[in-house]
Amino acid sequence: MFYKPEDGHGLPHNPFNAIVSPRPIAWVATRGADGSENLAPYSFFNAVAYVPPQVMFASTSAKPDRDGTKDTVANIRDTGVFCINIVEYAMRDAMNQTSGAWDKTTDEFTLADIKREECQTIACSRVAHAPASLECKLTQILKLPGETNYAVFGQVTGINMRDDCLKDGMFDVTKYEPLARLGYHDYTRVTELFSLKRPDS
C-alpha cells in the first residue's frame, strides 16, 4: 500500500502513529507565571544531543483557553523552564488521567494524586517517584507547519534518578519498565533487553 497524506489513507484509522513507534513519553511538568502547576504527557519526545544534553518534545493541538496552544507550551513560553518525567508502567493510569484537556486552572498533580517535589536547578515541580526526571531550561520553541504544531527544545540542567533504578552503576530500565506510546489507543512497556555492538566498537 502507498498513500500521500494529503490524499488520505482510506483506512478506518490513521496509521501514522502506529508506524512511528514505539515512542517514549515525556511527562512534562510546568509552572505558570502565576504559580499554577501543570503536568501532561507528550509522545513526540526524544533526546537530541549529548553535550550539552538536550531534549525536545512536540505539542500538536490547542485548547480554547490557551491562544493556539496548550497549557504546557504556554507555561514554558512564560517561564523558560520545564521538567520531563519518565513514565513507568506502574504509573500508566495516573499518566493517562493527566492527558485530559483540563481547564488551565487544573493542577494535574492534585487531580491524579501524584506526589511532587521541587526541582533543584529550575523553579518547577517534578514527579517525586518518577524513575528519572530531566530539569530543563528552554532553548527554543520552533513553530512547525500546521496550525498548532510546536517543537520545544531544552537544555538539561539537572537529572534526578531513582536509586532503585541503578544497578551496578548503570540506569536499568527493566527495574521500572518504561511506558511507550504506539498507535491508536495502544501502549507497550520495555521488559527485556538485548545488546548489539557497533562494528567499530
UniProtKB/TrEMBL annotation:
Gene3D superfamilies assigned: Electron Transport, Fmn-binding Protein, Chain A
Database matches in SMART domains: Flavin_Reduct (SM00903)
Organism: Parasulfitobacter algicola
Descriptive protein name: Flavin reductase family protein
Residue intervals of the Flavin reductase like domain: 20-173
InterPro entries for the chain: Flavin_Rdtase-like_dom, Split_barrel_FMN-bd
